[in-house]
Amino acid sequence: MNRGTVIVTAVLCAIGFPAVLWLAFYEAPLADHPALFFNQKIFYFHVPSAFMMFAAVFVCGIYSLLFLRKRKPEHDEIANSAAELGVLFGAVVLVTGSIWGKASWNTWWEWEARLTTALLLWMIMLAYVLVRKYGGPGSERLGAGLGVFAMLDVPLIYLSVHIWRTVHPKTSVVPELEGKMRIAFWVGVATFIAFFVLLIKVRNSLGRAERLLHDVREQAFDAGLLD
Amino acid sequence: MRSLAIVMLVSAWTAVAHAQDGDAPYASPIKDKCFEEIEKDAGWYNELELLFQNQLFFDPRTPAEPRPPGDVPPTHEPDYTSSMRAQCTEEMKRDASFMAQLRSHFDERLSYEFQRQNAGAFTTNKKHVIMAYAAFMMLLVGFLVGMFLRQRKLVAEIERLREDVKRSASE
Predict the structure, then answer these.
(1) Backbone angles phi, psi at B111, to 5 degrees
(2) A210 interface with B at CB cutoff 8 Å
């Protein structure tokens, strides 16, 4: 684990999260829409979480491709770490989005394109994690295939609000943010990026420990200590 | 003098033609009184506000759904119920400026500036914001604790196996 990166990102998170809360609740004005008002405050970490879910899926997909090509275990470790983060951020997006939906649409869930494709992506990432955990030997390649497949769902989610008629807001919301709303949002995104890097570093060290355990087990097996 | 006579003649003819066409916009004589009644009748006012807030197409000609007999609304009885409601609704139908004025009134009420000034009234929905932040924190803490426990278990397992291998090699 690169200690310098971990320290820098941890410090950024320690400063960034309170700053985002301050900006979102005390600086950013209320949303100018009767269906939003105060519950729009969920936006400041719902959308950055969605960005991080996409980032995790892309990292997983790219390292899965590298693993399939070069068969280096380091690539597989990073893909596996990113997949777990994809599940984490995906869960945050779905749960907070559902609560926000209840507040502004008066329904916990709507089977519309944006929500359904996001749920599909989360399920693919969950499938990746389960395959890696319980798939046994060879699950790395199977998982890598899933990782690449999941990456292809990301543009579909992004464009879903334009392709189909949905109740979810369009992608133009973020570019149209103004003033302190824009500042609060982008500080949130920067903080979540630092948090993502920190988590992937920490999770990767766990992957290395798993590989080390595998090596030690082989030594123990050779010494006749394990069946 | 001659041109003045022509102008007067043309004006008179235009006024008569206009009146015959029936194009003159209708101006309700009781509009102001209706506004007073709407302000006084809280139930009527809230109903109109809800319609405009939800951006529904408000058509005063559409009759309200008849309430089944015995179906009493759960809300408390308003202090004042206007007797002019039907008459005013008729006037809204006829007077386009009446509807425009109503729309403008409710648009102003729902405007950003109004919300900013009355932010306290709109923060009642903080329950969902707290729920969302709590869910975020729980998921995050759950993930971090899970990762910490897995790390601790792995390190303990590695140490134990290393000790076993060392002991076995020394024997």
Answers:
(1) -70, 165
(2) yes
Q: How many CB atoms lie within 10 A of CB B1?
A: 5
pTM above 0.90, yes or no: no
Q: What are phi and psi of B19, to 5 degrees?
A: -65, -35
- Count how many residues are written for chain A: 227
Burial of A117 (0-12, 13-18, 19+ CB in 10 A): buried
Per-residue pLDDT reduced to its tens digit, A117-154: 999 999 999 999 999 999 888 889 999 999 999 998 89
Tell me, what's the ipTM? 0.86
Taking the C-alpha atoms of residue A30 and residue A25, their distance in angstroms, rounded to an integer, is 9
Q: How far apart are CA B28 and CA B100, in angstroms?
A: 13
Residue A227 in domain = no
B32-86: pLDDT as tens digits: 899 888 888 888 887 887 777 665 544 444 445 555 566 555 554 557 888 888 8
Instruction: Residue A198: give the domain boundaries.
Output: 3-222
Q: How many angstroms separate the CA atoms of B97 and A69, rounded?
A: 71
Residue A23 belongs to some domain of the structure? yes
Residues of B in contact with A212 (CB under 8 A): 158
Test the A interface: residue of B113, B124, B139 with most A CBs within 10 Å: B139
CA-nearest of A218, A194, A182, A219 to A31 is A182
Number of domains within chain A: 1
For an interface test with B, the pick among A22, A25, A41, A87 (most B C-beta atoms closer than 10 Å) comes out as A41
